[in-house]
DNA sequence: AACCGAACTGTAAACGTTTACAGTTCGCTC
DNA sequence: GAGCGAACTGTAAACGTTTACAGTTCGGTT
């Protein structure tokens, strides 16, 4: 027994005060049964001392920290923000804390996060890689803790994953544009050397083929994900390929850039030019006219990833799982004449299992006047 | 010496393999000096085994976890997102991880976060309280680890804090509107029973008084922070008080709602109605016309809070500090005829000490055509 | 060749828990 | 009132590190 020095109370302090052994203290505090008299004295001593168990010591003994790590390229990106929200909402009720890691889209940093699981500081990882290399697969396969990837992985990869369906998403948007009579639809894509970039391109060409339209390479521009990049791209398109009546953009920022450019030239939206974006971020709802956008289910992907990880941590030793989240088209004023100027739809409102809204004043009637179309989800286990 | 069973390698495993004691292993690994021969053997053994030190054991021994906690009301709010980014950017180079906690604006949850510092799981806390009660002050004063508050605290509070200057911010926006010849400026405020709510109201009335204008209560509406709430409020104002030529809104969402409402009625912006918002979020840049907005320096508040906390953790035992971050007005097309339709200014671009941009393609020429005015910052130590 | 101090190394304790095991108490039954 | 399980309690070890202390080695001096 140490002298009752300064420092916060420990089981030892309580044991001394209650006149029992530290084992009894631990047992009472964890509800493992003791004589009523013992329980009373320990609980009283603990309460008087304001005892709080040392989580670090507990983690060392128990081998679990009750911490999860979420690593993504950029904290600021609204897509990842909604993932964070859902992961948090899923993990918190089970007593897990969330550790945030921004990789700044540096591949080496991603690898480091996976490797650092070996330091036992976190019980599991949800990773959004910018691009998946062979080294990624090797390192993840050897990870000291369960890893779930949000993104596309090769079929044989031994890692759980959740992916978006950007092919279907693009198809939904393109079909919508073409169904409303547009015949010359441009395409502003993000970097093409990524899986989503290639998938969107595929969706675009597929939709054109479906409609019996020819694919004109001059109608496609590849650029950065950026408002000003979107504006520049739109200007370029309008200069080089006159007669464009609609444009699909790989994210909402690009789409808003396109809207700006169109306005600069005196084009009316949607009358002269229909614009559709992707991600269904808050920007889409806020802009004027409100932006038609493809929702790739980032919130749901976050929730599913969290559930996958938690089930692994529960010790369930099932096969590798890979789930695909359906895309959903949210039609607003930028492509349709009869859509309202703004709507009250929030992306988490689309998720029945979502976190309860902390601030009821912020959500009103859900999506009145907003049309949503879902692509069929394909769920496969390999 | 235990049998070399499964499980990840520990100092013991390495010691056995290198033929030295665990103390030597620890010393070599921490660079505390050893004979070249010992160093070589330990390092080789560690490398061969792929040893990674157990961070939990380390934390238990050292009494520090190298983890910081950031607790705020809502992960999704862009204001907090930019704080997260800066806190992360400041703490990561010093080897600190960031634990995220969303309080969902529940006061009891805020108190729990502070109390849970006693579990030794985090080295310090940055808290954004929704409202500060006496109990908050008591609990923070008794906290087991340093706490920094982002928000306004009573003068005598024994806690470091960083606050925004919403009075000056409101004044900047109002002076700008009045200086451009507007004479009937409405005010859409958020909830009035908070410190920022009262401060904005004060700034509004002060600006009117400065300009020798009478304060007309019919021109002020108090509502929730919400796009649709902003639209509803604007409609109400235009119905009840005709002749309004400008409006200042307590955040960008409200302002965009006002823009929508004005468009619905065929009003031109800025010709018929000038609109200014607050927070200078991405929404302000993205909207059309781009929105004049007051930047309350959320990124900088995050950075300063992180620095304050880190200096406490460095053992510096200075007096309680309270810093106020200056407000800055960013003028864009929604109030000025000659402003560009959009600009490339990003809020972190305004911060010279900010995190380097991970994606150079996203930032172009900084703020060309955008006028920024700073309120003088007052920095005080109590 | 013995000696000395510096430099290194090993043993063991400590951080605060949880828990196996052995020892104790207790309420019953006969 | 002795005997018997069941229920409780205490001792001690374990989780994986770091580090004070004492013991060892080493080179260089005299």
TrEMBL record, chains A, B:
Residues 336-382 are annotated as: Disordered. Residues 9-62 form the HTH lacI-type domain. PROSITE patterns: HTH_LACI_2. Pfam families: LacI (PF00356), Peripla_BP_3 (PF13377). Residues 369-382 have a biased composition (Low complexity). Residues 341-362 have a biased composition (Basic and acidic residues). GO terms for molecular function: DNA-binding transcription factor activity; transcription cis-regulatory region binding. Keywords: DNA-binding, Transcription, Transcription regulation. This is Transcriptional regulator, LacI family. It comes from Actinacidiphila yanglinensis. The lineage of its organism: Bacteria, Bacillati, Actinomycetota, Actinomycetes, Kitasatosporales.
């Amino acid at each position: 027994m140490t002298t009752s020095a300064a420092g916060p109370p420990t089981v030892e302090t309580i044991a001394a005060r209650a006149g029992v052994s530290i084992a009894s203290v631990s047992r009472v505090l964890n509800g493992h049964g003791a004589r009523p008299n013992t329980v009373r004295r320990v609980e009283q001593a603990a309460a008087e001392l304001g005892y709080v168990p040392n989580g670090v010591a507990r983690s060392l003994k128990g081998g679990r920290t009750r911490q999860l790590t979420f690593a993504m390229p950029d904290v600021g990106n609204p897509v990842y923000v909604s993932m964070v929200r859902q992961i948090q909402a899923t993990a918190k009720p089970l007593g897990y804390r969330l550790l945030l890691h921004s990789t700044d889209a540096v591949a080496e940093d991603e690898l480091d996060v996976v490797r650092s699981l070996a330091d036992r500081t976190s019980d599991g990882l949800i990773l959004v890689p910018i691009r998946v290399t062979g080294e990624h697969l090797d390192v993840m396969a050897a990870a000291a803790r369960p890893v779930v990837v949000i993104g596309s992985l090769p079929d044989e990869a031994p890692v759980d994953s959740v992916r978006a369906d950007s092919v279907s998403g693009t198809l939904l948007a393109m079909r919508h544009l073409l169904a409303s009579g547009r015949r010359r639809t441009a395409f502003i894509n993000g970097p093409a050397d990524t899986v989503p970039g290639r998938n969107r391109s595929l969706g675009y060409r597929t939709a054109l083929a479906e409609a019996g339209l020819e694919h004109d390479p001059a109608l496609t521009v590849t650029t950065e994900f950026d408002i000003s990049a979107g504006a520049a791209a739109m200007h370029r398109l309008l200069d080089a390929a006159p007669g464009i009546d609609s444009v699909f953009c790989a994210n909402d920022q690009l789409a808003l850039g396109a809207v700006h450019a169109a306005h600069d030239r005196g084009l009316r939206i949607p009358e002269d030019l229909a614009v559709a974006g992707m991600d269904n971020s808050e920007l889409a709802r806020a802009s004027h006219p409100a932006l038609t956008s493809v929702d790739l289910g980032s919130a749901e992907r976050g929730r599913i990833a969290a559930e996958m990880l938690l089930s692994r941590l529960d010790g369930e030793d099932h096969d590798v799982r890979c789930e695909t989240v359906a895309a959903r088209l949210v039609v607003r004023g930028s492509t349709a004449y009869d859509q309202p100027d703004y709507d009250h739809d929030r992306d988490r409102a689309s998720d029945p299992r979502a976190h309860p809204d902390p601030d009821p004043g912020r959500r009103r009637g859900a999506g009145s006047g907003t049309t949503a179309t879902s692509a069929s989800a394909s769920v496969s286990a390999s």
